[in-house]
Amino acid sequence: MSRIVLGIESSCDETGVGLVRLADDGTVELLADEVASSVEQHARFGGVVPEVASRAHLEAMVPTAERAFAKAGLTLSDVDAIAVTAGPGLAGALLVGVAAAKAYAAALDVPLYGVNHLAGHIAVDTLQHGPLPKPCLALLVSGGHSQLLRVDDVASGIVELGSTVDDAAGEAYDKVARLLGLPYPGGPPIDKAAADGNPEAIAFPRGMTGPRDAKFDFSFSGLKTAVARWVEGARRRGEEIPVADVAASFQEAVADVLTAKAVRAATESGIGTLVISGGVAANSRLSALAAQRCAEAGIELRVPRPRLCTDNGAMIAALGAHVVAAGRKPSGLDISANPALPVDTIVV
Ligand code: KG4
Ligand code: ZN
Q1: Residue nearest to atom 13 of ligand 1 (CA)
Q2: Ligand with minimal distance to 310 CA
Q3: 132: number of CA atoms within 13 Å, CB side?
Q4: Which of 33, 284, 310 for mutating ligand 1's site (highest number of atoms within 8 Å of CB)?
Q5: If you measure from the C-alpha of residue 303 to the centroid of ligand 1, how many angstroms do you get, rounded to a whole number?
Q6: Span 218-239, average pLDDT
Q7: Given a cut of 90, is residue 36 above it in pLDDT?
Q8: What is the pLDDT of residue 1?
Q9: Has domain 3-124+312-325 been given CATH number 3.40.1190.20?
Q10: What is the pLDDT of residues 86-119, one digit of tens each?
Q11: Domain extents in the chain
């Protein structure tokens, strides 16, 4: 008998509610994926304001859930299990989702699983491309995370190979966009501007690529500073800023480092599949360069469609379904949100 899993996500500025069907053979089918974003409320601050996000989650949670049930043609009584993001993320934002999930689980008397947001970003790919090969490698790049992970089993075994030592990749996009006078979030406008620019116009630094640097860690703050210095220098000289060239050259530096490290990690670990997820996975240059370098190295590349890459509830429902299928123990109603949940804790 197939089972319906409800997924709730509220770790940052997206209130997500997803519904999936877990079939007896372990396949997971997407039924609904409703998202309410508070991104516009944060735009004028150039970054997510935690208190504003928490309040927006509170207002959006029940209406978003209602939309998801309506979309799936299901009612609350159809739910067999609930998964909720327990961390990592913003404390107050996480709490809203965890409280809502507990209330639904108690009212419906179904098991509750507090799960890891980062594992959700990987599990979501199964909704589009089917089961993940074991092992596979995941590159998670968003406004909050930049990680390289070895995924032995998305429901039970994830090991961090490297992560950013300072800014997340998306954060670098957002900060550089601000420097160039482009709107927040900065990824899409930089991607667009870069299309008309020369990626070799300016040789921006490739962070953490020296012989003594950690092989699979990232650093983007030096790159951001280099862009800032370059722009300031041009302004001081009274020159017009070649926005397209700066955007293209910055974007090339980010995509170069991310794909080089990911392909190297896959090759050195003998892993044949790379999954790229998170908001930055929508970047056109990142996916093109990853496709080229993976093809050269004989690695299969999987990138979920942009809608699934950004924060959503379907990714948490998908992870919940894999956790249920793996027979993992439910978390219980006494779980709390953990803003710093480590990536190897997939279920709390
Ligand atoms: O996954 P996401 O929606 O939320 C977080 O968990 O952070 O990622 C948002 C990030 C933002 O920093 C945004 O600038 C970046 O993803 N982003 C992009 C693109 N679209 C979104 N970065 C580069 N190129 C894009 N096309
Ligand atoms: Zn995320």
Answers
A1: 187
A2: 1
A3: 34
A4: 310
A5: 14
A6: 97
A7: yes
A8: 86
A9: no
A10: 999 999 999 999 999 999 999 999 999 999 999 9
A11: 3-124+312-325, 136-304
